[in-house]
């Protein structure tokens, strides 16, 4: 399990260990620069222009996806520091067959985790992974092929999926809510402010919850700034630039049943 580090009065920083698919160039003298707080011509080492990165999770109840005691992965989305973003940044790297790509890189554990926790509710899981990589993964400046030594096709996509899985494992939304006495129920309702408070306290920065069917919570956005590159950097919790929610003040947190 990746580890947390925290300094007094500072936001929680997440330092992630990685098994790299390829060899990302080292980033000396740049990892102290936090994305969205500085600039550099070396965009292999500083995520630019998309330095606000959101780890997005689902709580799917109809149809159900994933374990009944865990949220699941939606994706890892790079956004500009003002909340704007681009998608599908390089169609030439819209890889197919993510399963084989991960297997060939020796990332069987990552793939196995994705098969349990990165699931689609309306298409094949493989198609979902391909979409998330093509739509969002190709927009990371630090994952450009030119950022790699001895690059082989797909190295950067493997790093994207490993990073997303490892980061998700540091964000146990279900557990954080349960620790605050907030558990799924078909009869109870909860104050949105109670969920926000519990999650912000555990995460170290405000989160954004979204609802469907008017008042049923189903999605969460965690935001980060990044020191270094996606493959080896340090993730620092941040506030979402767009903090709006479509949830009412009282919501349902339905069980997966």
UniProtKB/TrEMBL annotation:
GO terms for cellular component: extracellular region. The keyword Disulfide bond applies. Transmembrane segments: none annotated. Residues 1-21 form the signal peptide. GO terms for molecular function: ribonuclease T2 activity; RNA binding. The keyword Oxidoreductase does not apply. The active site is at 74, 132, 136. InterPro entries: Ribonuclease_T2_eukaryotic, RNase_T2-like, RNase_T2-like_sf, RNase_T2_His_AS_1, RNase_T2_His_AS_2. Keywords: Disulfide bond, Endonuclease, Hydrolase, Nuclease, Signal. One of its GO terms (biological process) is RNA catabolic process. It comes from the Eukaryota. CDD domains: RNase_T2_euk. Its EC number is 4.6.1.19. Belongs to the RNase T2 family. This is ribonuclease T2.
């Amino acid at each position: 399990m990746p580890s947390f580090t925290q300094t007094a009065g500072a936001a929680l920083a997440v330092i992630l260990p990685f098994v790299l698919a390829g060899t990302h160039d080292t980033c000396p003298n740049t990892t102290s620069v936090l994305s969205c707080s500085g600039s550099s011509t070396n965009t292999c080492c500083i995520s630019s222009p998309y330095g606000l990165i959101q780890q997005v999770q689902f709580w799917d109840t109809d149809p159900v996806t994933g374990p009944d005691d865990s949220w699941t992965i939606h994706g890892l989305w790079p956004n500009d520091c003002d909340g704007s973003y681009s998608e599908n940044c390089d169609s030439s790297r819209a890889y197919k067959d993510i399963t084989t790509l991960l297997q060939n890189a020796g990332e069987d554990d990552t793939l196995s985790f994705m098969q349990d926790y990165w699931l689609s509710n309306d298409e094949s899981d493989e198609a979902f992974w391909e979409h998330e990589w093509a739509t969002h993964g190709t927009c990371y400046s630090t994952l450009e092929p030119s950022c790699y030594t001895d690059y082989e096709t797909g190295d950067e996509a493997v790093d994207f999926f490993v990073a997303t899985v490892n980061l998700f494992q540091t964000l146990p939304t279900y557990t954080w809510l349960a620790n605050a006495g907030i558990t799924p129920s078909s009869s109870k309702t909860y104050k949105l402010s109670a969920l926000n408070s519990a999650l912000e306290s555990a995460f170290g920065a405000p989160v954004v919850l979204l609802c469907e069917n008017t008042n049923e919570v189903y999605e969460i956005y965690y935001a980060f700034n990044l020191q270094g590159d996606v493959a080896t950097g340090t993730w620092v919790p941040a506030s979402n630039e767009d903090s709006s929610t479509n949830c009412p003040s009282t919501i349902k947190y339905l069980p997966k049943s």
